[in-house]
Write a structure and sequence with these properties.
Largest sheet: 5 strands, mixed
Strand order of the largest sheet: 4-6-7-9-8
Number of domains: 3
Strand content: 5-15%
Number of strands: 9
CATH architecture of the largest domain: Up-down Bundle
CATH topology of the largest domain: Rhopdopsin 7-helix transmembrane proteins
Bound molecules: adenosine-5'-diphosphate
Number of helices: 12
CATH class of the largest domain: Mainly Alpha
Radius of gyration: 36 Å
Distance between the termini: 57 Å
Order of helices and strands: HHHHEEHHHHHEHEEHEEHEE
């Protein structure tokens, strides 16, 4: 029964260690999970060695297991104090270091002096029955009393450290701090205290029972995994909320950019509608004539049809662009992306006498991304460039959209180059910060959002370093589909 129980606990510890280790691999900054993973390994190691102790046939064999028990115990204590350090973030560093140094000294001494840190000698074993199984426990032994005091001091320092860290966290206030502090107090401190008392009663021969760390290591692990699990769920919920907010912000920014283009877009729409009205008048006059010219009428209808498509095309793009939209990754043709955006800025650019040119490498591979979001990036860069070149003379307002493949990196690189006043070096980082704007009607979110979008696509967005009088180049990369 003991063998089954200990093996079962060991298996649970290893499974929890694997889960925590995986959590840490996914998010390397989450060191608390790494410490729980180590605690799981320590608990399983402890369980294995404790089984060895309980099944020892001779005092000699028992001594060897006893010596090795120190290794998982050391690992477990380090994991527990460092877990509290990373989880509560309020520990006193000097206390933490004192504990680490003391426990390290203990493990070194343990392997230098025979048979172990705790005992001068283990002379005889005694058999006892535990949960229906015969197991070996210490019969007669000589403990190293003074060293044991040292161990006891280190244990009390561990307790003091944990209680102090939890108390400081508690005093920070807020339900989150209190919950975390309470989890450490109930999940670690209480079982640790019981185990210290129990282990010393065994070492000094008051209790004749097996030494065990497995149960409290495992207990602490379960409570902490539960507490950490709650945190992870809360964090995930907050992340989703943030994602939703970012989505709303991106949409608001798209609507704002469309607003900046509104007058040019209205102009673009009025043209086909006015042409259609004129064509309808012409058709009516033709029909009212004695001998309507059918060829002429067909040509007029073709014109009406073309103008109608033009208007519908612009309106569709505007609607797609301003709608609330969840990210949808798909392979995209770079030329289509550029055409989408050109359709929206073309009239604004010609209003401002900006000459738009393309320098696209032919046969570009497709990129992986969300069509609306990537159009948003390109549109932001183009609208900024149009604003930038406005300060230049009429014949010096050039904007070029460049695209080329970088096969070595599996990326496509796009750039928007303009002949505007450029960006001073000291503002090269500032312009990407939210709400940074030099425009009286600017929101300052365009570049911040564009960078977020590009990075969410696994790419980078940066300003190319060049002499300021040569204008500005914003370059970004996208992954090949
Ligand atoms: P907004 O356009 O609302 O100001 P952005 O984040 O798009 O917000 O741009 C932030 C600032 O970066 C602009 O106000 C402008 O000062 C600067 N900037 C952006 N693009 C260019 C450019 N092509 N040339 C010069 N300055 C630019």
């Amino acid at each position: 029964m003991v063998t089954i129980l200990w093996s079962l606990c060991g298996t649970v510890a290893i499974a929890l260690a694997a889960v925590c280790g995986w959590l840490w691999l996914v998010e390397r900054r989450d060191r608390a999970s790494l410490m729980l993973c180590l605690l799981g390994v320590a608990a399983a190691g402890s369980g294995f060695i404790e089984l060895g102790l309980m099944h020892s046939a001779t005092a000699e064999e028992f001594s060897i297991w006893q010596r090795w028990l120190m290794a998982p115990v050391f690992l477990g204590f380090m994991a527990v104090v460092l877990f509290a350090h990373y989880y509560l973030e309020t520990g006193r560093l000097w206390l933490l270091w004192t504990i680490i140094v003391m426990r390290s000294a203990m493990i070194v001494l343990n392997f230098i002096f025979h048979p172990s840190f705790n005992f001068v000698s283990i002379d005889t074993l005694r058999q006892m029955s535990l949960l229906g199984e015969q197991i070996s426990v210490i019969g007669t032994a000589v403990p190293r009393t003074y060293w044991q005091m040292f161990a006891l001091v280190s244990l009390f320092l561990v307790m003091a450290y944990l209680i102090d860290t939890a108390a400081r966290r508690w005093r920070k206030g807020g339900p989150d701090s209190r919950r975390k502090a309470l989890a450490v107090l109930l999940g670690i401190v209480l079982p640790l205290f019981s185990t210290i008392v129990y282990a010393h009663l065994v070492v000094f021969g008051v209790l004749r029972a097996p030494l065990s760390n497995l149960l409290w290591f495992l207990g602490a692990l379960v409570v902490m995994v539960y507490a950490l699990g709650r945190d992870i769920i809360a964090k995930r919920r907050a992340q989703l909320e943030l994602l939703g907010l970012r989505e709303q912000l991106a949409q608001a920014e798209r609507v704002s950019v469309l607003g900046q283009l509104a007058s040019a877009l209205a102009h673009e729409l009025i043209q086909p509608l006015t042409a259609t009205a004129a064509n309808v008048d012409a058709a009516r006059m033709e029909l009212e004539s004695e001998k309507p010219d059918l060829k002429e009428l067909r040509a007029i209808l073709d014109d009406v049809n073309r103008d109608d498509h033009r208007a519908v095309d612009i309106l569709t793009r505007m609607r797609q662009f301003s709608r609330r939209h969840a990210i949808e990754m798909q392979p995209l043709v770079v030329e289509d992306l550029v055409q989408d955006v050109l359709a929206l800025v073309h009239s604004e650019a010609s209003d401002k006498h900006a000459v738009l040119a393309l320098a696209m490498q032919p046969g570009l591979p497709r990129v992986l991304g969300d069509r609306v979001h990537l159009s948003q990036v390109l549109l932001n860069l183009l609208v900024n460039s149009i604003h930038a070149v406005e300060s230049r003379p009429l014949d010096a307002r050039g904007i070029v959209i460049e695209a080329r493949a970088n096969d070595a990196k599996g990326e496509v690189e796009l750039a928007v180059r303009d002949s505007g006043p450029g960006i001073p070096d000291n503002l090269a980082d500032e312009v990407f910060k939210p709400f940074f704007t030099t425009k009286s009607n600017g929101m300052g979110m365009g570049l911040a959002l564009s960078r977020t979008i590009v990075e969410a696509h696994g790419g980078r967005l940066w300003i190319e370093r060049m002499a300021q009088q040569d204008g500005a180049v914003f370059r970004f990369t996208l992954k090949r589909a």
